[in-house]
Structures are given as structure tokens and as C-alpha cells.
Write a structure and sequence with these properties.
By secondary structure, the chain is of the alpha+beta class. It has one domain. Helix content is 26%, strand content 37%. β7 and β8 form a beta hairpin. This is Lipoprotein. Keywords: Signal. It comes from Castellaniella denitrificans.
Length: 181
């Protein structure tokens, strides 16, 4: 009997310590991108200088335990709709910035900047695992990002986040098969 009480007590304590993932649908961008976040999203807009322009990137994010989930969007200047080269440069720059911000070496030029990728880096509290995808359409720069300590990442339902993700045109995201490393 005492053993059953001890096991039950441990189960209650473990449940109290595990983060709650209360998934909520979130639209981001103007062209139909959507996903889920594990709590009420916080929104923050910041100016991001790129080449000779400043883009206003709005990130909607939520934490569950030690895992940060974020969905971001920025409108592109009207003239960029007809400039595939500048959109490719922006996608590459955005991917490289995620790597640099986590203290990791960006992938080489052969990596497709719009494929889902993951890598190990360093955050303010130690090692982090970053999993992300960047899409640059004719009108928008879009990002989906998960950042966590490796153990937190391994125990969180990160797959639910990726399965929920819909890019403009209804396309979902695939497993990071062509992960730039």
C-alpha cells in the first residue's frame, strides 16, 4: 500500500512539473499561413535591416516549459514581387541569421534556404536545439521556429507544431530531410 502511494505521489509531482501544451491556432502573415502555438501568443514587431530596406518582422511566440515556439511574418516591398533574386537572398540571409544568433556556423550555399532545418547552437543558458523553416513568397517573409535545450526539445511534442503548419497555398511542412548542417 505504501509503495502504491509513493508511486502515485511521484506521478502527481511529475505531472505538475511537465509543461502544458494548450495548442491554439494562429494565423500569421497576409496570405494564409497558419500554425499552432502552445499557449496564448505574445506578439512583437521589430525592424530588420536587409540590404537597402527595413522590414518589420512580427513574431508571434509562446513558451511551454523550456521550449519556445514562434511564427513570424514580414511584408515585402512591392517591387520585390518581380525580383526572385532578392527574395532568394532574403531567404538565405534569414537562415544564416538564425544560425549566427545561436552561435553556429551557417550552412553552405548548396543548402536550400526554404527547407526545414535543425542544428545545435548555444543560447544564454547553454546548448540549444533550433528547428526552423523560412519561406519567402512574392509578398512575404515567413518563419516558423522552435528553440529549446536539447533535453526539453526531445520531450516536447514539437512534431505537433510542424504538423499544424500551413504555408500560403495550403502546403504543409515536411520532416527536415534536407537539413543544412
Amino acid at each position: 500500500m505504501l509503495r502504491m502511494l509513493a508511486i502515485g505521489g511521484c506521478a502527481v509531482l511529475m505531472a505538475a512539473c511537465s509543461p502544458t501544451f494548450d495548442w491554439r491556432p494562429v494565423a500569421f502573415g497576409q496570405a494564409g499561413a497558419a500554425g499552432v502555438l502552445p499557449d496564448t501568443p505574445q506578439a512583437q514587431t521589430r525592424p530588420v535591416p536587409f540590404e537597402d530596406r527595413t522590414l518589420n518582422l512580427t513574431m508571434r511566440s509562446a513558451r511551454a516549459g523550456g521550449v519556445l515556439f514562434a511564427l513570424g511574418a514580414a511584408e515585402l516591398p512591392p517591387g520585390w514581387a518581380d525580383d526572385a533574386a532578392v527574395r532568394r537572398r532574403l531567404a538565405r540571409w534569414a537562415v544564416d541569421a538564425l544560425y549566427r544568433n545561436a552561435g553556429a556556423e551557417p550552412p553552405g550555399p548548396e543548402a536550400d534556404p526554404q527547407q526545414r532545418f535543425s542544428f545545435e547552437g548555444r543560447g544564454p543558458r547553454g546548448p540549444v536545439r533550433v528547428e526552423a523553416q523560412v519561406r519567402v513568397t512574392a509578398t512575404e517573409w515567413l518563419e516558423a521556429v522552435v528553440i529549446a535545450a536539447p533535453d526539453d526539445h526531445a520531450h516536447a511534442p514539437v512534431g505537433d507544431f510542424w504538423l499544424s503548419l500551413r504555408w500560403p497555398g495550403g502546403e504543409g511542412t515536411a520532416a527536415p530531410g534536407s537539413s543544412p548542417q
